[in-house]
Design goal:
This protein is mainly β. It has 2 helices and 16 strands.
């Protein structure tokens, strides 16, 4: 089962101007539920959420391709480094997106967009892999699962060559080279291995909890719903996403967002189960809106 997420932004109204008094909204975004619709297609179905919003300073949306919205505090994943001085804690490691020039296998000079891991103290310890759990003092780390560990085949997470001390002896990497005075020298190691990670919620600006009614489940809330765990059940990223910058002007902003979640598998998974969505958005200052619940629905 694969989820493909998309976002459409409709009916955006900018409330600015000198000919009238613009409305006053709080700088923390406010949202209201409008509608949720399930549409069947030829091979791909879509669950479409519509919500209305108001925001006092209009700082809604990000440019997903821009490095500044992929670096801290907007980086997608947080990795971890051991702390040799205190094995009971781990050191968070964030990333910075950067374009790196290197020599490919054909000898051509090319560029690669990498997410470079940023270490405050290289000598503190090594990156946390699933095998770290077998080391003395680290048995508290979670057992291997796709909830907590990610195998990076082609995501472009890398370290500089001078940071290789954070890798253990069995770490799998691709080495990027360049030429210095005609001599081929290593510059970066692209990780091709499994790392312990946590998703950074601030990477996204719309959070979607997919909730399923299971009253007999001991983890159900007072209304009988549990949050469906996509990563645990399918090794699949959840439904959180990013919507684009809505305006380049500062000031009150209101309108509607329509968030479409195309999928190949919703109906086969949930059949006649009762569902609802729990939703909030955040602005570029990381202010979180109120949380809304959709109506209960089935597919």
């Amino acid at each position: 089962m694969k989820i493909i997420k998309g976002l459409a932004v409709l009916f955006v109204t900018l409330s600015l101007g000198s000919c009238f008094d613009p409305p006053e909204f709080p700088i923390v975004p406010q949202i209201d539920y409008e509608d949720v619709v399930f549409k069947q297609g030829n091979g791909t179905d879509s669950l479409i959420l519509t919500l209305s919003f108001k925001d006092g300073d209009g700082d809604l949306g990000v440019d997903a391709a821009a490095p500044e919205f992929n670096n801290a505090p907007y980086n997608n994943l947080t990795f971890f480094q051991t702390d040799a001085s205190d094995k009971t804690k781990l050191i968070p490691v964030n990333t910075v997106q950067q374009t790196v020039e290197h020599i490919n296998k054909q000898g051509q000079r090319v560029t690669a967009n990498l997410h470079l891991l940023q270490f405050e103290n290289l000598s503190a310890g090594q990156l946390v892999f699933p095998r770290t759990r077998k080391q003395p003092g680290y048995s508290y780390l979670p057992a291997y699962s796709c909830e907590s560990y990610e195998w990076f085949r082609s995501a472009g997470y890398a370290i500089r060559e001078d940071q290789k001390a954070v890798l253990d002896k069995t770490a799998m990497v691709d080495t990027l080279f360049t030429r210095l005075n005609g001599v081929k020298v290593a510059t970066h190691y692209v990780i091709r291995d499994t790392l312990y990670f946590q998703v950074n919620k601030n990477h996204y600006n719309i959070d979607i909890d997919f909730m399923v009614k299971e009253p007999s489940n001991p983890e159900a809330d007072e209304d009988g719903f549990i949050v469906y765990n996509w990563r645990k059940n399918w090794c699949q990223q959840d439904l959180d996403g990013r919507f684009p910058i809505l305006t380049d002007k500062e000031g009150p902003l209101e309108g509607q967002l329509r968030y479409a979640m195309p999928t190949f598998g919703f109906k086969s998974i949930f059949t006649i189960k009762t569902l609802k969505l729990r939703v909030k958005i955040r602005d570029r200052a990381l202010n979180e809106s109120n949380t809304i619940l959709t109506k209960e629905f089935t597919l």
